[in-house]
Amino acid sequence: MRSSRFTFKQFAIEQSGAAMKIGTDGVLLGAWVDVVDANRVLDIGTGTGVIALMMAQRGGAQRIVGVDIENGAVECATNNFLNSPWAKRLMAVQSSVQDFESEKFDLILSNPPYFTDSLLCPDSLRTMARHTTSLTLEQLDASVSRLLEKSGRFALILPTEQMERYLALTQLNLVRRCDVRSRSGSETIRTMAELSFDSHKSVAYESLTIYEDEGQQYTAQYRELTKDFYLKF
Description:
The longest helix has 12 residues. The protein has seven helices and ten strands. By secondary structure, the chain is of the alpha/beta class.
């Protein structure tokens, strides 16, 4: 039987209680986002808690909250937090972000549901985790705008088409963008964005390629970004 435990360099994730397991998207976002001056961090749709744990490893944030609508995910994240070196700085809360009441945060992150047009999964928990039935992009943006400090930043990862939709509707301003490709000649499959209330005269545009053009070897760029987390790097 395949183990449900995923081990990183400084922490481990038990995934059995969460509807959605660890994927590349969350790890990319957690490794890429700027954590400077982020003392209070919110992870929307925390799932296993992997992004929150990456924030605890990377920065000095004293309060890191993972919020999720699904009870199994909150239990899973709570256990992973308690078994980490940073248990006192982490907590998981069961709530939709639309109903979540809290102080404001310096940094908010999300690897949100994005399957807006595909058939619903027969598993109701995976449907909540994967589809925008429980959190639309509009609801996400309104919640972030309510919970983000005026000087804070919001970072998320989405399929590029969905990111273009989000950037067209958001009340925030783009600060930094990274387009992700599986190989150098392929289309962009994901986009990461960092936004703030302040408008910026210049936006930092970046790109990331995961695999070398031949075979399954990871690029030096991908290895460099994720080397503090993956055991194989």
